[in-house]
């Protein structure tokens, strides 16, 4: 299957994608979140983009790709543009930029910047923002340097039980954020002293380690946070490299395993005023869920583990060059979309979801997650596909690429990889089912499913529903909202009104400890099945 080059302007982002994909899919791969309130059915007209060189307008959700393209995405077609830019320009429209006013006198006529940071268990994202106009000047991300001490929250809590361990984790994350700040300053050609405000969000463990709060109690029942309050501290208290007269705002946590990143997500997607029954799924090492309407909200955390971010998968990786990000059935074989249009070297989370969906569709793997034997696969699949069913390191496997396609060893998906995936998706699906039961509704009652997370907009909805990662709802009800935690952090950076809304949300959200629900064991076991 042919692949084509698509360049998105004014972002300057370039991706390669298979023939027949929509511009909406391509935008997702480029990390651009479009406004698709109709769920991609082509009825709302809000994802309009312009094709060069004649600026012809098309709907991104309807236009399929059959040649190289240069695409211009206007601000009004972007999901978050109305929050950060358009509303920011109109003080009556909801996002008044009040934080900047605190620094007018001390900063004088120079530009006043802030930094919004989302500390994830696996990934840390930082945005440099002009506090006067709300514009994001630059974005940088890095692997959380704490991963050297464990790839999940439980291992970090264990390491930080001693004062020395906590101090080490605190120093490591501060050093990492300072590296991100320096990188942002280099891109913008500014001095770190021009940064006066920082907004920090993360799960409760990441929040506490950043602030230097004890975390031992988070690993012991009843898993209480040291503090769920917002904290405003000086940069010198933690050693953040920014203007020493500035302020660091760490937003409210919700509970011991539900942090300020969930607060930021709920803020970014307007859960405080949602009129439709909405489920927000923030996929990461710790999957976070928010369910309800503005009148009543429930939330839960799922210990999904790092498999969906590439860890514990034999050839897994983060979304880096050479990682398989999509797998598509192509007549009698498969075709791959690879980040950077490079030779495949690994597989990231979105590719893993696609691959499992494809294996189910082909009958190579059954709903229990078990590989079919090679003979059975040969009897039901065309020869090119059947030849991919191999044994690898003493276990059944499926070869996604071989040494002829890549510069390194073949990229394969093993039986153990499928089991790791089942654990991750099972935790999320169980959380969703238990939260729905808490509200007394079924999946069919959901009017919107908002998929958030650093790689949420890279996932194909059909694949996510097929494997049971997302509820079995009509695909038009599923909307991608990108890294909503980082967007919420940016809103908190700019506006005191947003900070007040965030505080109100945390008081209204009812936390559900799903592991303590009586039916958790049974529901989790059912959710391990690879089925909607």
Briefly note the structural class of the backbone: alpha/beta
Biggest sheet strand order reads 8-7-6-9-11-10
Average pLDDT, all residues: 90
Q: Number of DSSP helices?
A: 16
Strand tally:
23
The end-to-end span amounts to: 29 Å
The outline comes out as: globular
Main sheet: strands, sense, barrel: 6 strands, mixed
List the helices and strands and how they pair.
Blueprint: E1 3-9, E2 13-18, H1 23-29, E3 48-51, E4 56-59, E5 69-72, H2 81-89, H3 104-107, E6 113-119, E7 123-130, E8 136-143, H4 153-159, H5 163-188, E9 195-202, H6 204-211, E10 231-233, H7 235-238, E11 247-250, H8 260-268, E12 278-282, E13 287-292, E14 297-302, E15 323-330, E16 333-338, E17 346-347, H9 349-362, H10 374-380, H11 383-386, E18 389-392, E19 395-399, E20 412-414, H12 415-439, E21 448-452, H13 461-467, E22 478-482, H14 484-494, H15 496-508, E23 509-511, H16 520-527
Parallel strand pairs: 1-5, 6-9, 9-11, 12-21, 14-23, 15-17, 21-22
Antiparallel strand pairs: 1-2, 3-4, 3-5, 6-7, 7-8, 10-11, 12-13, 13-14, 15-16, 18-19, 19-20
Helix pairs in contact: 8-14, 8-15, 9-13, 12-16, 14-15
Write a concise keyword list for the protein shown above.
532 residues; alpha/beta; six-stranded mixed beta sheet; 16 helices
Can you tell me about this structure?
The chain is an alpha/beta fold and 532 residues long. A six-stranded mixed β-sheet has the order 8-7-6-9-11-10, sandwiched between helices. A six-stranded mixed β-sheet has the order 22-21-12-13-14-23, with helices on both faces. The two termini are 29 Å apart. It is 31% helix and 23% strand. β7 and β8 form a beta hairpin.
């Amino acid at each position: 299957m042919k692949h084509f080059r698509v360049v998105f302007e004014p972002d300057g982002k370039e991706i390669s994608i298979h023939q027949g994909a929509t511009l909406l899919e391509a935008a997702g791969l480029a990390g651009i979140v479009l406004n698709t309130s109709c769920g991609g059915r082509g009825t709302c007209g809000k994802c309009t983009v312009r094709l060069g060189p004649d600026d012809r307008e098309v709907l991104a959700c309807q236009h399929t790709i059959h040649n190289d393209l240069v695409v211009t995405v206007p601000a009004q077609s972007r999901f978050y543009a109305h929050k950060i830019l358009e509303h920011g320009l109109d003080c009556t429209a909801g996002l008044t930029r009040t934080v900047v006013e605190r620094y007018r006198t001390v900063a004088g006529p120079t530009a006043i910047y802030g930094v919004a940071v989302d500390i994830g268990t696996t990934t840390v994202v930082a945005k440099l923002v002009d506090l006067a106009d709300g514009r994001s000047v630059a974005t940088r991300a890095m692997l959380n340097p704490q991963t050297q001490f464990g790839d999940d929250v439980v291992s970090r809590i264990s390491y930080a039980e001693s004062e020395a361990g906590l101090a080490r984790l605190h120093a490591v994350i501060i050093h990492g954020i300072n590296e991100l700040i320096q990188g942002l300053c280099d891109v913008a050609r500014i001095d770190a002293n021009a940064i006066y405000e920082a907004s920090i969000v993360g799960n409760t463990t990441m929040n506490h380690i950043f602030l230097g709060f004890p975390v031992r109690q988070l690993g012991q029942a009843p898993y209480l946070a040291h503090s769920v309050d917002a904290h405003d501290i000086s940069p010198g208290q933690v050693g953040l490299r920014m203007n020493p007269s500035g302020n660091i705002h760490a937003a409210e946590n919700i509970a011991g395993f539900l942090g300020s990143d969930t607060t930021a997500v709920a803020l970014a997607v307007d859960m405080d005023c949602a009129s439709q029954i909405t489920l927000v799924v923030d996929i990461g090492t710790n999957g976070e869920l928010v369910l309800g309407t503005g009148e009543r909200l429930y939330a839960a955390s799922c210990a999904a583990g790092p498999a969906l971010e590439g860890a514990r998968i034999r050839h897994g990786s983060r979304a880096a060059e050479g990682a398989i990000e999509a797998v598509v059935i192509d007549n009698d074989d498969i075709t791959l979309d690879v980040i950077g249009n490079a030779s495949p070297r690994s597989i990231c989370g979105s590719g893993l979801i696609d691959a499992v969906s494809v294996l189910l569709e082909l009958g190579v793997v059954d709903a229990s997650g078990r590989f079919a034997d090679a003979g059975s696969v040969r009897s039901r699949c065309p020869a090119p596909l059947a030849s991919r069913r191999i044994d690898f390191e003493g276990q059944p496997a499926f070869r996604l690429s071989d040494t002829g396609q890549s510069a390194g060893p073949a990229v394969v998906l093993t039986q153990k990889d499928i089991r790791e995936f089942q654990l991750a998706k099972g935790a999320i699906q169980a959380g969703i089912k238990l939260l729905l039961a808490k509200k007394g509704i079924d999946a069919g009652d959901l009017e919107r499913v908002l998929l958030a997370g650093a790689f949420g907009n890279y996932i194909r909805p059909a694949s996510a529903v097929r494997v049971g990662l997302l509820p079995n709802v009509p695909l038009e009800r599923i909307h991608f909202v990108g890294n909503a935690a980082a967007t919420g952090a940016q809103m908190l950076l700019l506006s005191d009104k947003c900070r007040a809304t965030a505080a109100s949300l945390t008081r209204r959200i009812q936390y559900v400890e799903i592991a303590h629900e009586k039916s958790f064991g049974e529901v989790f076991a059912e959710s391990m099945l690879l089925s909607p």
